[in-house]
From TrEMBL:
<dbReference type="InterPro" id="IPR018170">
    <property type="entry name" value="Aldo/ket_reductase_CS"/>
</dbReference>
<feature type="domain" description="NADP-dependent oxidoreductase">
    <location>
        <begin position="3"/>
        <end position="289"/>
    </location>
</feature>
<dbReference type="InterPro" id="IPR050523">
    <property type="entry name" value="AKR_Detox_Biosynth"/>
</dbReference>
<dbReference type="GO" id="GO:0005829">
    <property type="term" value="C:cytosol"/>
</dbReference>
<dbReference type="Pfam" id="PF00248">
    <property type="entry name" value="Aldo_ket_red"/>
</dbReference>
<dbReference type="GO" id="GO:0016491">
    <property type="term" value="F:oxidoreductase activity"/>
</dbReference>
<protein>
    <submittedName>
        <fullName>Aryl-alcohol dehydrogenase-like predicted oxidoreductase</fullName>
    </submittedName>
</protein>
<dbReference type="InterPro" id="IPR036812">
    <property type="entry name" value="NAD(P)_OxRdtase_dom_sf"/>
</dbReference>
<dbReference type="InterPro" id="IPR020471">
    <property type="entry name" value="AKR"/>
</dbReference>
<dbReference type="InterPro" id="IPR023210">
    <property type="entry name" value="NADP_OxRdtase_dom"/>
</dbReference>
Length: 294
């Protein structure tokens, strides 16, 4: 998401190389990231790689070409954005293609018909949605089921400071057989503990574009959760990020974590978190203290 925005191509190449050296394969992007620059950069970088070793996840339905956020999940727009993404990435298919968000002004059948067409024409191997709630997910899965195409994934925000999915969405996803891809598993950096003594100048909360999004997770109900994560990290001798990622990775229904490292140091912490398994007592304690964020 940061590529072409706060991460230039030089740093992107370093991050991608370190990720692949560590055995990473899945790369999440979207038509609207960096106004298209994210896919352009990724496309140039993966030309030197074996495409078959990568799992490319793309999304369509949100753009900023007019300077503001535009949501359009009509069939024509989705397929047009898919073709643009494939061109930028230099590939003939995505391994997983998602509708980026729900839209009330487009019939669900029309939106899902774009996913069906992407699969039948070979432009996407699997399809799913992003940021759908429980009933929206079940409704979408039902439409695709009639076309004999499985809805395989829902990409959602999920972390110790954002657990609203637990009540309805997690069981709904299990019901339809969809995996959940958790974005912002570190709560926009809140769970790393870097905001405990103020807002760093280079942080997400300090940047104009994401101020509102990150600020909602600072203070109030988040404070005891952040403190608990820090206490667990001290006791285990690991970083708070490793604790938060270890907790999220082990949650029921969570298939993978979507992380946005902006430099090699952040990526190293993320990769360490992917290997962190929390003792059951600590995982339960974190579950209890974060229960109010559901």
């Amino acid at each position: 998401m940061n590529w072409g925005d706060t991460v230039d191509e030089v740093f992107a190449e370093e991050i991608l190389q370190d990720f692949r050296d560590a055995g990473g394969t899945t790369i999440d992007t979207a038509y609207g990231y960096g106004d298209g620059d994210a896919e352009e950069i990724l496309g140039r970088l993966i030309k030197q790689s074996d495409r078959d070793e990568l799992v490319l996840v793309g999304k369509a339905g949100i753009s900023r070409t007019t300077g503001s956020r535009v949501v359009d999940t009509s069939r024509g727009t989705l397929l047009s954005q898919l073709d643009a993404s494939l061109h930028r990435l230099g590939t003939d298919h995505l391994d997983l293609w998602l509708v980026h968000t729900w839209a009330d002004d487009v019939p669900l059948a029309e939106t899902m018909s774009a996913l069906e067409h992407a699969v039948t024409t070979g432009r996407a191997r699997y399809v799913g949605v992003s940021n759908y709630n429980g009933w929206q997910l079940v409704a979408a899965a039902a439409v695709l089921r009639d076309a004999r195409i499985p809805l395989t994934a829902n990409e959602i925000e999920y972390s110790l400071v954002e657990r609203s999915a637990d009540a309805e969405l997690v069981p709904a996803a299990a019901h339809v057989g969809a995996g959940l891809l958790a974005w912002a598993p570190l709560g926009g950096g809140v769970l790393t503990g870097k905001y405990r003594r103020g807002v760093p100048a280079d942080s997400r909360a300090a940047s104009g574009r994401h101020t509102g999004w990150a600020a909602r997770r600072l203070g109030g109900a988040a404070d005891p959760i952040v403190d608990a994560v820090a206490t667990a990290a001290d006791g285990l001798g690991v970083s708070p990020a490793q604790v938060a990622l270890g907790w999220a990775r082990a949650r029921p229904g969570i298939s993978s974590l979507i992380v946005g490292a902006r430099n090699r140091t952040q990526l190293r912490t993320v990769l360490e978190g992917a290997e962190t398994s929390l003792p059951p007592a600590i995982a339960q304690a974190l579950d209890d203290v974060s229960d109010s964020s559901r």
